């Protein structure tokens, strides 16, 4: 469970978000460009500090401005997968995967490599991978840090349509087989339909609506998106 009650002044508005996310399966954060989706992700993973408020993950305080408490990004036990996979170019895939691996994940290495279908890539350098393969390695690297929560910020946006479809299948496997809660940022409603159990709609820096996918897809706001 992720409890969020934060404010942050941005260039064109003050970002506000006050909602507890159950984090069962995949929670999509949906909104147009500039609505504050990445700001939310970066407040959760500790790359940004709120001006006011708190965030708690499974009852663990990550930040609380009233108590002057701020847990660093490295200590949050949250993995983030960005639009750009950002692998170390001079390390082979295997070293990219094991670089920040948590000790407890050694016995799950094979399982994660299998789910993401990256075993045949382990001894290649990132330059020898396609965009979709790089993104699968980036997801594997994030999972091997043993996070309690995985954040994905538009992970498909740099990929062509066949690769998008392929990666969606792998993300679905993660939820079923690795059993990790995922917060998934997108402005693509088809990705929401395929992946998400819950959806939060962001609009001009505020939470517009939050609920299970079937009911949120009915809301007036999304009429023009369908
Ligand atoms: N560090 C910052 N300081 C001030 N303003 C910011 C900062 N980061 C983003 N903004 C502004 O805040 C607003 C929300 O940006 P954000 O990147 O969170 O939106 P987004 O929904 O993720 O957009 P996109 O889909 O284009 O990535 C934008 O108007 C942006 O210009």
Describe what this molecule looks like in 3D:
The chain has helices at residues 37-45, 93-98, 109-115, 131-143, 161-178, 189-195, 213-216; strands at 2-9, 14-21, 26-30, 52-57, 60-64, 69-70, 78-81, 149-153, 182-186, 198-203, 206-212. The strands form two sheets. A six-stranded mixed beta sheet has the order 7-8-9-3-10-11, with helices on both faces. The chain has a five-stranded antiparallel beta sheet with strand order 2-1-4-5-6, covered by helices on one side. It has a single domain, classed as P-loop containing nucleotide triphosphate hydrolases (Rossmann fold). Helix 4 packs parallel to helix 5 (161-178). It has 226 residues and is of the alpha/beta class. The chain binds adenosine-5'-triphosphate. Adenosine-5'-triphosphate binds at residues 10-12, 31, 33-39, 187.
Calculate the terminal CA-CA distance, rounded to whole Å: 30 Å
State the shape. globular
- Let me know the CATH homologous superfamily: P-loop containing nucleotide triphosphate hydrolases
Strand content: 25-35%
Query: Would you state the CATH class?
Result: Alpha Beta
Number of helices: 7
Describe the sheet with the most strands: 6 strands, mixed
Question: What is the spatial order of strands in the main beta sheet?
Answer: 7-8-9-3-10-11
CATH architecture: 3-Layer(aba) Sandwich
Fraction in helix = 25-40%
> Which spans have pLDDT < 50 for at least 5 consecutive residues?
none
- CATH topology-level fold name: Rossmann fold
Summarize the helix and strand pattern as letters: EEEHEEEEHHHEHEHEEH
